[in-house]
Amino acid sequence: MASQASLLLQKQLKDLCKHPVDGFSAGLVDDKNIFEWSVTIIGPPDTLYEGGFFNAIMTFPQNYPNSPPTVRFTSDMWHPNVYSDGRVCISILHPPGDDPSGYELASERWTPVHTLPPQMNLARSQLQCYGEIVYSFDGHDLLGECSRRDKPIERLKSVVTWYISTLRPLIFGLAPYNPVIGETHHVSNGHINVLVEQISHHPPVSALHATHEKENVDVLFCQYFTPKFRGAYVEVEVKGRRVVKLLNHKETYEMNQPKLLMAFLPAMGAHWAGKIVIKCPETGLAAELQLLADSFLSRFTGNNKRAIKGKIFESSSRKQLYDIFGHWDRTVTAKNTKTGQLEVIYKASENIAKLKTPIVKNLQEVSESESAVVWGEVSEGIMTNDWEKAREAKRDVEEKQRESLRKREASGQSWIPKHFSVARAGKDWDCVPLQPTVPQAPIVIPL
């Protein structure tokens, strides 16, 4: 009889062959031995390894995934975490538990949660994570502040500040649930009402609409992901549209989203990286921000300092008005290029240090499609370490989605989102909310 480890490895290899990733391939060294894989990594572009083909052997233990595989390069490889005999030495491949030498944290070493659901899940849906970056804050109402400022340049600075506040630290090895189609998340915090809906499952596309009742601000996200394997890390491009409208000023702020990098060698880690552009056509002002993790050194050392730098400028003349610099998880400063005056525009300790958990204000009005309802039993199992309960509940959620899909396909029906109209051109998605404002939600952030 096949062991649990061999069945899992067969499934993972089959999934990898069915859904190949750029720059990586895998197969068996011996067709009769599922526990030994031959892998090839193509050197990532814009690195010292570009153009190279690096072969390695991954050997899985009989008690996988409770214990980690070993990795040994059979090609010549120069890297600080690769020994002269080709063996790879990184924290994630070290046995679970405390490090006897005290050098590594237990959380940095191998645990089964790196491979198996539901242990690899955070007790929340991805839709909840999207909503939290808008409604979950402690202290000043940064979204409302965007509209309260009198001058266009001050409003753009406030939009930049609000955008920085939406960047939240990531936890490598733990991920939220993948939302099911039709799942929603509806929460209010003061004057801010947020509604998120999963409008597609294959590919996964999420739409968010938020409105600020008092300051007449409208926020719209439509986003989806394109992952690319780069050898030692995975680069996830977040595509779609982000728009903030200050309706009292008839201004629209268009912005893109940073990339997500998940590094494996030599140290594991997940962080935001890349260039962010925010522009307002009505005022002719724009901002460019660079998250300073997208470099060769940080990719291969795991040294992510969450630094940010950028500028605010006039779009037509490119005349620079402000320098932006700091760390998005600590403090960010703006420097007036004309006067040299410094202004701290963002302090993470004042905005996201003491976040509050949403509470149910009116249970009767909570929708059956609400994330907390859909995933409630899964979350309860995870939080009580009842993994069998969590597995069963997660299988139930996923089977309901598959059954719903089978019924739609049998009847020739397409899924129609409840809160958004959807437009698709090739691989690009866009959405428009069906209602001009988001109503007060039955789930709220306590005062």
Automatic annotation (TrEMBL):
> Which protein are we looking at?
Ubiquitin-conjugating enzyme E2
GO molecular-function annotation terms? Answer: sterol binding
Which residue intervals define the domain UBC core in the entry? 4-176
Annotated catalytic residues: C89 (glycyl thioester intermediate)
What Pfam families does the database record attribute to this sequence? Oxysterol_BP
Q: Which family does it belong to?
A: Belongs to the OSBP family.
Cite a single GO BP annotation: lipid transport
Which Gene Ontology cellular component terms are annotated? Answer: cytosol; membrane
Q: What's this protein's function?
A: May be involved in the transport of sterols.
Taxonomy of origin reads:
Eukaryota, Viridiplantae, Streptophyta, Embryophyta, Tracheophyta
Q: What's in the keyword line of the UniProt record?
A: Lipid transport, Lipid-binding, Transport
